[in-house]
Q: What sequence folds into this?
């Protein structure tokens, strides 16, 4: 699942390489992925793609006309959705949710192997209509999310740390992979309850969150472009590495759960 580092870099690449392109034609080959009518999708023709950005686990693409944003595409790729920036390539793969051809050649596509992602096409002031949008907490890398604000927010969110980090009402942009990385870095057990944390542990969690995400974003920036459809995770230290040695203490990493696995070190991340 693309998380904050992945989507940040995709947004940066799209802003760098596709902003300013004029839409020649927009279609939804697999309309079930798009929360808009075929007419609304087609009406993107003639608009210019603005600078993409990320919010939480959404990628936001503005479509501008006459100097103002006319429509906003908010894409939540869920498990397996990917954007592709292509030259002229007529063959359309199965499970292509959106196809945007540009004047002068080239196109942007959204392809979703699992068909679980959602693309919303809304008015620029219509983002609040997207389920979960208005309740979303600050981005986990938001400069305004200071340690002080983090301490304040975490008081209002009880429960297990792994779920807490993945809860976009608390902080936005973190999923299954990076929550494991952050908790290992902070040396806190995933099933610890927030109510058991000492103040210094809360501070450690904040520092780990910021460090892990900043480091990962930098790594992804060096690995992903120009192929924005590829996800790189090979540098992760613990996530899905159950059975391997802990990079900190050398003991065997444990893994629980199936598809949504949690990996941790029982020695570095004691359960109390
Ligand atoms: Zn360890």
A:
């Amino acid at each position: 699942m693309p998380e904050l580092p992945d989507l940040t870099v995709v947004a940066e690449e799209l802003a760098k390489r596709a902003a300013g392109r004029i839409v020649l034609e927009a279609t939804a080959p697999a309309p079930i992925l798009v929360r808009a009518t075929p007419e609304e999708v087609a009406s993107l023709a003639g608009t210019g793609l603005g600078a993409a950005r990320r919010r939480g686990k959404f990628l936001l693409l503005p479509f501008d006309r006459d100097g103002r944003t006319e429509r906003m595409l908010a894409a939540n790729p869920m498990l397996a959705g990917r954007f592709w920036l292509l030259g002229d390539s007529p063959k359309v793969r199965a499970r292509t949710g959106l196809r945007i051809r540009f004047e002068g050649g080239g196109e942007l596509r959204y392809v979703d192997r699992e068909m679980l992602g959602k693309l919303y096409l809304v008015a620029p002031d219509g983002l609040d209509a997207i389920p979960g949008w208005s309740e979303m907490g600050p981005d986990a890398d938001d400069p305004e999310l200071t340690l002080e604000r983090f301490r304040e927010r975490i008081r209002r969110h009880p429960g297990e740390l792994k779920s807490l980090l993945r809860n976009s009402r608390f902080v936005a942009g973190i999923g299954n992979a990076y929550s494991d990385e952050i908790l290992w870095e902070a040396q806190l057990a995933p099933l610890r309850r927030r109510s058991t944390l000492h103040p210094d542990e809360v501070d450690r969690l904040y520092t780990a969150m910021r460090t892990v995400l900043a480091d990962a974003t930098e790594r992804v920036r060096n690995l992903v472009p120009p192929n924005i459809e590829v996800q790189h995770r090979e540098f992760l230290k613990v996530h899905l590495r159950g059975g391997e040695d802990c990079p900190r203490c050398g003991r065997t990493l444990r893994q629980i759960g199936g598809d949504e696995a949690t990996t941790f070190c029982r020695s570095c991340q004691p359960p109390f």
Remarks:
- The pocket of zinc ion is lined by residues 246, 248-249, 251, 265, 267-268 (CB under 6 Å).
- The chain is about 25% helix and 20% strand.
- The chain has a mean pLDDT of 95.
